[in-house]
Structure formats: C-alpha cells, structure tokens
Specification:
Blueprint: H1 10-21, E1 28-31, H2 41-56, E2 60-65, H3 75-87, E3 96-98, H4 103-115, E4 119-122, H5 126-133, H6 150-161, E5 171-174, E6 189-193, E7 207-209, H7 211-221, E8 226-230, H8 237-246, E9 254-258, E10 261-263, H9 270-278, H10 293-299, H11 303-313, E11 320-322, H12 324-338, E12 341-342, E13 344-345, E14 348-353, E15 362-367, E16 377-382, E17 385-389, E18 409-412, E19 417-425, E20 432-440, E21 457-458, E22 461-462, E23 467-474, E24 498-506, E25 518-521, E26 525-529, E27 539-546, H13 550-556
Parallel strand pairs: 1-2, 2-3, 8-9, 10-11, 12-25, 14-20, 18-21, 23-27
Antiparallel strand pairs: 4-5, 5-6, 6-7, 13-24, 14-17, 15-16, 17-22, 18-19, 19-20, 23-24, 25-26, 26-27
Helix pairs in contact: 2-11, 7-8, 11-12
Adenosine-5'-triphosphate binds near residues 43 and 268.
C-alpha cells in the first residue's frame, strides 16, 4: 500500500519502551467500533493508527465490535463498518470479533468477582445510585446493599440473569471504594437488566455488561497488548486496570489515550449524524456531504487521500481542532496526481464562431494529465457552435475582468483565439443567450504566430458533440466553525449545501464514464460519477472538491466583486 510508514509519536515511544523492557514481546492492537452508526473521519484516524501500528511493528490488529447496547446496534452498521475499513485499505484476516461472543465468559468473570467478594447486587434506583455517588468534591456513601453475603449476591445475580427481576430494578456493581477521588471507581455498575433483543444474541440475555467491564476484558481475551482509545477514557484507565487485576486473565493490556479528531465546520458525533439521517436532512449515511467514510467514498475521495490526511494530522495527547481545509487539501493533492483532465461546462452559454465553416469538425489534441506524462493525450472535437461558461462572459466587464466580453480576444484551450463580436439577447429578459465570435485560424493549438498575447484561456465544449449530465455541487453542511458547540446544531445547518445543475455539457470522451470514475474538470475542480444516481445515458457527477481558488481570498479581502479571473494556463 502506498501509505507512508506511521510517524513516530508518543504512542510509538511507549511501545518502543515496552518492547525494549520485554513487557510485551509483540504488538497486538484492535479497532473497537460500536455498531450503532456508520464510521466517520474520526474513526479513520483511529483505524489508521491501530492498523498502522500493527503494520509498523509487524504485529496484528483485530476488528472488534463492541456490541453491548442492544437497543442501538444493528447488523447494517456491522456490514458498513467492515466495508469502510477494507476500503481504507486495512485487513483483519480472520480476526473479526464481537464483544457479544464473549457474553458467556464475561458473565463468568462477573460471577468470579461476586465469589471473591468484589461485586454485589444493588437494588438502588438510578436516582438513588446518583445520590449515593457523591460529587467530585464530596465522597459518596456505601449502598445499603453493599454488605450482602457472597451467597446472597450469587443467588441474586443468577436470578437476574434468569429474568426474575424487572428491568432496572437491580444491578451488579463492583465493590471498590465509595470515597475514591475518581468517581468512576465508586462501585461502578457491571451489569444491568435490560430486556432488549440483541442483533446477534437475540433474547438469550436479559442482563448486559457495561462498557467499561466488557471492553478491558475483551481486550484481555484477545491478547491485546496496547489498547488505544480517545482521551475521554483517561479517567477510566484505573477501572480498566482494576478489573484485569482482580481476574485471572491471559494478559494485561496497556491502555493508551490519544486526542480525538475534531474538524472545523463538521459534526463528528454519531448521535448527531444519526439525527441528520433520521430526520431526512441528508440523503442517508453516504450523502456526499456527510463526514462519514461512506460519504467521502461516494463523493469520490480516494482512500489514499484519507490515509494521507490521517498521517498529516499526526497523533497527539492534547485535543485540538483540525481545519477542514487541510482534509480538502489532501483530497486535492491526491486527485491532482491521478485524475485525468477533461473539459466540461457547468452553466452553458452558446458561442457561435461566425467565420468557422459550417459542418466542419476538427479533432484537437488535449493533454490528459500534465502531472503524469504516461497519461497521454486525447482528441477533442471543435466545431462552429460551442458552449462556454456563462461566468466566462460579461457584456459589461468589471475592472480586471479578462475573460470574454465585447471586442475582447481570449484563447479557447487547445484550440484558437476568438474575439467577441456581438451578442443575441432574449427580447423579454434582456439576458444574453448567444455570443457571436470570430476565430483566428493562425492561432490553432493556442499560440499566435505574431506573438500577441491574450490574458485568459477558457474551457469549452463543442455543442453538437456534448454529453449532457447532471452535476451536483456540494457545500459544507455547516458554516459555524464548531457546529458541535452550537446549542442546536440543526439550526446551524446551511440551507443550500446541495446545488443540482441540469444540462451541463461535457466533452464527448465522458460518454463512457463509469460510476466511480474521477476527473478534473479544467478550471472547475474534481468530479466523480455518482455510484448511486448515475445511469447509462443519464450521467450524474458529484463535485469532490474545487480547485484552489485564489480569487476567493482576494474577494474576502474586499476585492473587486463577483467574478473570478481564471489563471491563464497556456498550453
Ligand atoms: P462517537 O463519539 O462519534 O459516538 P464513539 O467513540 O462512541 O464515537 P466508537 O464506535 O466507540 O464510537 O469508536 C470506535 C473507535 O474509534 C474508538 O476507539 C474511538 O476512540 C475511536 N474514535 C471515535 N471517534 C473518534 C475521533 N473523533 N477521533 C479519533 N478516534 C475516534
Ligand atoms: Mg465509543
């Protein structure tokens, strides 16, 4: 795979030390998603880290579904997660595990804790439980049920499992220390009663283990050496260790926390992403505006660009927010190398070359990818009637507007210099519907033998050869830099983040484009044939990302206005 070797960072330093001291002889990590939603770009960071470390150290990385919450978990999510991890370029061989496969063993571990006097059945209600817990500054107090005998606890726990008690009426709790400064150590719950059908174990269980209990023990069962999780689990580490210390487990993994990925203008909470999907505010989990792996894939991003992004952001111990422009940069950089260039007109304006012979067609040579000489060239037909972008013409040009306007000469890419002579307007609206030009036959290929220069080069498509397409332009879902912090993140949704353009005109080489094919539309950006909506004879393309728009910066600094001069790219 073309991914760079994982960089050194504080986690590799930990691992190096562990290998040096002999604490661990190998590296075995895991990626532990809960199948309650689709994976997002934050998960990609975790996947690249866990699988990347295994690769770097010649070790292994498991995939484990942390499926201990039956109400929210579904097989659809399991399938999507597997597809996404594979698409990112990682493989777990036959090490596909489920916490639910360990339910019997986890139950046995819990009984062992009861027998050792380290766990008890508690009848406090959820409200009472909170009340007894104390606060960060005040100790909690012991549950009145804490002194139950081992026999009584064992009997009650078995009857909990057998379904004798109502949901929520009892819980199994660890017996640690109600005055512990870390509130997570104040006799935390291990098992709760929950009559819910699990997507894998069905109705076999009515008691389910809590995450903290299940997670560390699952790691130990699998022989994980380094259990890497996000920073919010730092406070859970003493509990993680406590369970493993009490029980006879095959190994004691080291939990290491790292900073989760936050992205500007992006929501990365599964709960919130689920809300966008459920409320129909996006077109499913793979909507190209979603920050999900499935969304980026459908939009047309490559797995390499996501991996390179994850490598670029690095791994740190302190939380921070990454500018989404950095992700866009990684996407652009990768596509720049691989995407063939083509010409496409998104908002067409008819141009008639009055002095070009009627019925004549010339095949002009165009370069497929200036970044890749092996990509070769192709022929593009040129004829009397063409389309250019509406934006590339102004009847009354503002200052510094160098594109087509009455009397002005411009270059048509790979073709000729043309000069605008007159316009045709809609008598009702006054809108320019057609531009009449003349061409200079001596400028074929794009240069004038007399050395005269033009300030701009336009892309174009021959009208009679054009392939029609629908093009979908996606904007960010949120303008707010930190939509997660908004009180109501839904209110921060941008109203027009999807713009659908019909009757766009593409050069004829795109007639055979297949779903998933990616292109650079010259002067516009990178586009991908949509895998869901595109049909033979009904091409639909997504804009993956625009080209770097230097004009936008000028505009933001109070530039001259609404039109953007293209860079004059001479061939
Ligand atoms: P969310 O908070 O979005 O619901 P989660 O952490 O509950 O996500 P899990 O399915 O439990 O989702 O995550 C699987 C793994 O991915 C965990 O190890 C988690 O730490 C990691 N992960 C989740 N979100 C991020 C993120 N933004 N950056 C880095 N790693 C993440
Ligand atoms: Mg989680």
């Amino acid at each position: 795979m073309s991914s760079p070797e994982p960089k050194s960072h504080f986690i590799t330093e930990f691992i190096d030390e562990d290998l040096k001291t002999g604490r661990f002889k190998k590296v075995h990590t895991r990626f532990p998603p809960e199948p309650n939603g689709y994976l997002h770009i934050g998960h990609a960071k975790s996947i690249c880290l866990n699988f990347g470390l295994a690769r770097k150290y010649g070790g292994l990385c498991n995939i484990r579904f942390d499926d201990t919450n039956p109400e929210t978990e579904e097989i659809e999510y399991v399938e999507s997660i597997k597809q996404d991890v594979r698409w990112l370029g990682f493989d777990w061989d036959d090490r596909e595990f489920y916490a639910s496969d360990y339910f019997d063993r986890l139950y046995e571990f819990a009984e062992t804790l009861v027998k050792k006097g380290k766990a008890f059945v508690c009848d406090l209600s959820v409200e009472e439980f909170k009340e007894y817990r104390g606060t960060i500054t005040t100790p909690g107090k012991d549950s009145p049920y804490r002194t139950r005998t081992v026999e009584e606890n064992l009997d009650l726990f078995r009857r909990m499992r057998a379904g004798e008690f109502a949901d929520g009426s009892k819980a199994l709790r660890a017996k640690i220390d109600m005055a512990h400064p870390n509130m997570l150590m104040r006799d935390p719950a291990l098992y709760r009663i929950r009559r819910a059908t699990h997507y894998r174990t069905g109705d076999k269980w009515c008691v389910y283990p809590m995450y903290d209990f299940a997670h560390g023990l699952s790691d130990a069962i699998e022989g994980i050496t380094h259990s890497i999780c996000t920073l919010e689990f730092e406070d859970h580490r003493p509990l993680y260790d406590w369970f493993l210390d009490q029980l006879d487990v095959p190994c004691h993994p080291q939990q290491i926390e790292f900073a989760r990925l936050n992205l500007t203008n992006t929501v990365l909470s599964k709960r919130k992403l689920l809300q966008l999907v459920r409320d129909g505010l996006v077109d499913g989990w793979d909507d190209p505006r979603m920050p999900t792996i499935a969304g980026y894939r459908r939009r047309g991003c490559t797995p390499e660009s996501i991996r390179n992004f994850c490598d670029r952001i690095g791994v740190a111990k302190a939380n921070s927010t990454v500018d989404v422009a950095m992700l866009e940069h990684s996407i652009r950089e990768d596509l720049n190398r691989r995407a063939p260039r083509v010409m496409a007109v998104l908002k067409p304006l008819r141009v008639v070359i009055d002095n070009y012979p009627e019925g004549q067609v010339e095949e002009l040579e165009a370069i497929n990818n200036p970044e890749d000489s092996a990509a070769g060239t192709r022929k593009v037909p040129f004829s009397r009637v063409l389309y250019v972008e509406q934006d590339d013409f102004r009847e009354t040009p503002p200052p510094k507007y160098f594109r087509l306007s009455p009397g002005k000469e411009v270059r048509l890419r790979y073709a000729y210099f043309i000069t605008c002579q007159s316009v045709v307007k809609d008598p009702q609206t006054g809108e320019v519907t057609e531009v009449h030009c003349t061409y200079d036959p001596a400028t074929r290929g794009g240069d004038a033998p007399d050395g005269r220069k033009v300030k701009s080069t336009l892309h174009w498509v021959s009208a009679s050869h054009a392939v029609d397409a629908e093009i979908r332009l996606y904007d960010r879902l949120f303008d707010a830099e930190c939509p997660e912090r908004e009180e109501n993140f839904l209110a921060a949704l941008k109203p027009n983040s999807l713009q659908v353009l019909h009757n766009c005109k593409l050069e004829p080489s795109l007639a055979t484009a297949q779903p998933g094919d990616r292109f650079q539309f010259e002067r516009q950006g990178y586009f991908c044939v949509d895998t869901k909506l595109s049909k033979p004879g009904g091409l639909v393309l997504n804009r993956i990302v625009g080209l770097k728009d230097t004009w936008a910066k000028i505009e933001n600094r109070g530039g001259t206005g609404a039109v953007s001069p293209p860079r004059d790219r001479r061939r």
